[in-house]
Amino acid sequence: MRITAVRPILAQGERRLFVFVKVETDQAGLVGWGEATVEGKPRAVAGCVQDMEPMVLGYDPLEVEHCWQVLYRGGFWRQGIIGLSALSGIDQALWDIKGKEAGKPIYELLGGKVRERVRMYTHFGGSTPEEMARSARSKADKGWNAIKTVPVPITNIVDGPAVLDEAEAGLRAVREAVGNDVDILLDMHGRVTPQMAIRYARRFEPYEPFFMEEPVQAENPAAMAQVAKATNIPIATGERLLTRWGFREILETGAASLLQPDACHAGGISEVRRIGAQAEVYYAGLAPHNPYGPISTAACVQVDFATPNFVIQEMVDPDDMPISMTEFVEEPLKVVDGHILPPDRPGLGVELDEAACARCEPDFSSTAVLNSYRSYLARHSDGGVADS
Fold it and tell me: What DSSP designation does 22 have?
């Protein structure tokens, strides 16, 4: 069997522009699907997928690791977010082909499942304590027992008690609304400094958050380690880190005890599985990042079932998705009581609906697309650009 084509498929899902990957083979009807979505860089990633196609044309798609090495090491330059995302989408698609050819879910090819269900979490919002409490309670009422929010406003390098009071009031209201049977996960979004992250953490500790994600940017593990040492809240990070080499210093410095590689960015199924094994040496858990589409979710879940130190899996609540997004795959994986059960279909367990993607082909001059490029721009009160 040989790879005959590798091509990107773009689809506009209102708030997010998705980049899917299709790998075709010379075996009739056997194709693989992947996802390589990157905020604000869809055309760059799609172009990189096309640039990578000649590197693997004619290769055996079942030799997934060999293809990974060719794409990662065969172009002289080490890959950044664009190249690694393209590689990640291709890697997912190759695993999908391998599973389909074997007639088994991918987790069976990764050593078999080590659990009977995968715990999921989703997001809630609100701009006031009352709104946050209502949003959190609505998720709990639907069966989610783990929910995440961004609890802090845009914060200066050093800020006063008002921002701390605001953040604490929101978390207090949420805890009172959902009780202790629902885990509350906090995403700091890398938007604060170590000194402010420590002050926030001290306010948050009485409400027992499940973890605090990206209290500072992961580009400086030593700074994140300062926060980890100053709080009893577990620290999670990894959505902006690439490959096992990007996570090495996080583990060595004790900056985080939960790793969040993204299957669309960090190197695909192959590399997320390796990062999980790397984390196990340090008694750290795996909690893959995944605010993207149904192909990404399916790829993460396959790894989760086969990874002993997996903890919890992020996904967008299907009820929060635009209708067009829910149509991008046929028979998406279902969440039951806050968990996903083992998929029994071969490969990823989902199939991309190309017709639905074609109906949502992005118009790069449209307001929706332009807004997706600008959605992460944030500013401080004085007009300076802030981490969002």
Answer: E
The reply to whether 171 falls in a domain is yes
Residue ranges making up the domain that contains 84: 3-103+365-369
* Kind plus residue range of the DSSP H or E element containing 8: strand 3-13
- Residue 152's CB: how many other CB atoms inside 10 A? 25
**pTM of the complete model:** 0.97
DSSP for residue 179: G
Contact 279, 309 (CB under 8 A): yes
Computed on alpha carbons and rounded to an integer, the radius of gyration of the chain in Å comes to: 20
Q: Give Dmax over CA atoms of the chain in angstroms.
A: 64
Q: Is residue 384 part of a domain?
A: no
The CA angle 223-224-225, to the nearest 5 degrees, is 90
Tally the domains of the chain. Answer: 2
Residues 324, 266 share a domain: yes
**Per-residue model confidence as pLDDT tens digits over 11-63:** 998 778 999 999 999 999 999 999 999 999 999 999 999 999 999 999 999 99
Which residues are known to be catalytic? 189, 289
Q: Give a yes or no: residue 289 inside a domain.
A: yes
Which two three-digit tokens encode residue 145? 């027992």
- Domain co-membership, 133 together with 250: yes
Give yes or no: residues 203 and 273 share one domain.
Answer: yes
